[in-house]
Amino acid sequence: MFQKILIANRGEIALRVLRACKELGIQTVVVHSTADADAMHVRLADESVCIGPPPSRDSYLNIHQIVAACEITGADAVHPGYGFLSENAKFADILAAHNITFIGPSGDHIRVMGDKIEAKRTAKRLGIPVVPGSDGAVTEEKEARRIAAEIGYPVIIKASAGGGGRGMKVAHTETDLEIALQTARSEAGAAFGDDAVYIEKYLEKPRHIEVQVFGDGFGHGVHFGERDCSLQRRHQKVWEEANSPALNAEERSRIGGICAKAIADLGYSGAGTIEFLYENGEFYFIEMNTRLQVEHPVTEAITGIDLVHEQIRVASGGGLSVRQEDIKFNGHAIECRINAEDPRTFTPSPGTITHFHTPGGLGIRVDSGVYSGYKIPPYYDSLIGKLIVHGRNRVECMMRLRRALDEFVVDGIKTTLPLFRDLVGNADIANGDYDIHWLEKYLAKGE
Ligand code: ADP
To answer: Measured from the CB, is residue 203 less than 6 Å from ligand 1?
Structure first.
């Protein structure tokens, strides 16, 4: 087991990882920018190292500074959290070259899954169902027309190097196709420095369902069930559930089994998430994330397993603490992402939190790094906390969520709490009846 883990992140996830390390009796080092000197994870860590000024590129993305912090403090492993360097293959390689363990998969696995065309090819080869579309990059308009006619309109043009929903264009007819292809390529070139694009069938009303997987480092793969993250705004997840209200036990175990086998065949090590669009009983792979996800606590709630403990165990060579048959799904969990944003316009609202009171009671978990008097710096993303609620079934979970939202107080800044108070009373949400476009339509109606 590791002696000392360096946490290369900030905010709620840095605190989340710190808690796991403390439970396992592992010493902790955190790195932080000058803007985060007062952050909770910095206060609670055994050691902290300031690695630079506020902009992420000079601090949380500064590989040299982070490696130097490991060497100064004698950390033998790094947990990257999510975002920042968590899916940076070069970072994983550099740590390996310095004999520091990256708590995550190999640089090569990160690389394969980071290129969306390569990821889709790999998924297909591993027997994972994919969205019908081009076999690789498409450059010629003639070829694009042929593929689109073959799979049928509407189609979506996506950037191979894409991320964050950028560089995607939908074409409903052959006339749209030419312009969609050109815009997607120029947007991809400008945003990612790589203008390779590919074509997929555009699914009209899918749900976003993702499977939590783990490779144990010894060639075995397991799945921890799925999460439904269909409630999104601008491709950003807002509300996540486990299990998905749309799947039955047979579908869950079928798609979970396919994913676990793929992870084993790939020789993957650590946590990963295989993301699908789901429509009319069919799953279509869209991408794989090679890290811990923001929404991992809903899986922890229904399985009772600490996924960060498992990540640390696997990275240290100790394997998983559970086998597939030990992983049981118990009840229902929902997570709300609480952002420091205006609940209607979603404009960021940094500033000082004058009062912060979190709900409690059975089945309630709040993961947050903020506190009364904390000043939210304007430099980073606006997530200030996550409310995770667990119940014996979805009805109980929703009742508890409504009560917890009523108890939650954040004064001094605007937050997205009022949005969740509206959603929890909505009939479609109560019925679990929503797709990936539901929230955007709901928000458009309210304006
Ligand atoms: P990114 O990496 O940019 O987030 P993804 O491939 O994960 O891109 O897709 C992001 C979102 O775009 C999906 O969650 C879904 O809302 C939409 N999307 C992607 N592919 C399709 C498709 N074939 N049909 C319909 N919507 C899609």
So the answer is: yes
pLDDT number for residue 65: 98
Q: Is the peptide bond before 243 cis (omega within 30 degrees of 0)?
A: yes
Res 299: pLDDT? 99
Apex CA 138: angle with CA 137 and CA 142, to 5°?
A: 165
166 is catalytic: no
Are 132-201 and 207-445 equal in CATH topology?
Answer: no
Here the tokens at position 288 are 């794989």
Low-confidence ranges of the chain (pLDDT < 70): 447
Q: Is 274 in the pocket of ligand 1 (CB under 6 A)?
A: no
Predicted confidence (pLDDT) per residue in 67-81, tens digit: 999 999 999 999 999
The pLDDT of residue 230: 98
What Rg value do the Cα atoms of the chain yield, rounded?
22
What is the CATH number that goes with domain 207-445? 3.30.470.20
- How many angstroms separate the CA atoms of 31 and 10, rounded? 8
Q: Which residue has the tokens 């363990």?
A: 101
Q: Which pLDDT belongs to residue 164?
A: 72
- Residue with the smallest CA separation from ligand 1 atom 13 is 235
What is the Å distance from ligand 1's center to 404 Cα? 32
Q: Within 10 Å of residue 321's Cβ, how many Cβ atoms?
A: 13
Domain range list for the chain: 4-103, 132-201, 207-445
Number of the ligand 1 atom closest to the C-alpha atom of 200: 23
CB of 167 within 6 A of ligand 1: the answer is no
163 C-beta closer than 6 A to ligand 1: yes
Q: What angle do CA 311, 315, 316 make, to 5 degrees?
A: 120
Choosing from 10, 16, 185, 291, the catalytic residue is: 291
Q: Is the CB of 202 under 6 A from ligand 1?
A: yes
**What does the buried/exposed string (b/e) look like for 362-383 if buried means 16 or more CB atoms within 10 Å of the residue's CB?**
ebbbbbbbbeeebebbebbebb
The overall pTM is greater than 0.85: yes
What top-level class would CATH report for the domain 4-103? alpha beta
pLDDT of residue 104: 98
CATH superfamily entry for domain 132-201: ATP-grasp fold, A domain (3.30.1490.20)
Where b means 16+ CB within 10 Å and e means fewer, 266-295 reads bebbbbbbbbbbbbeeebbbbbbbbbbbbb
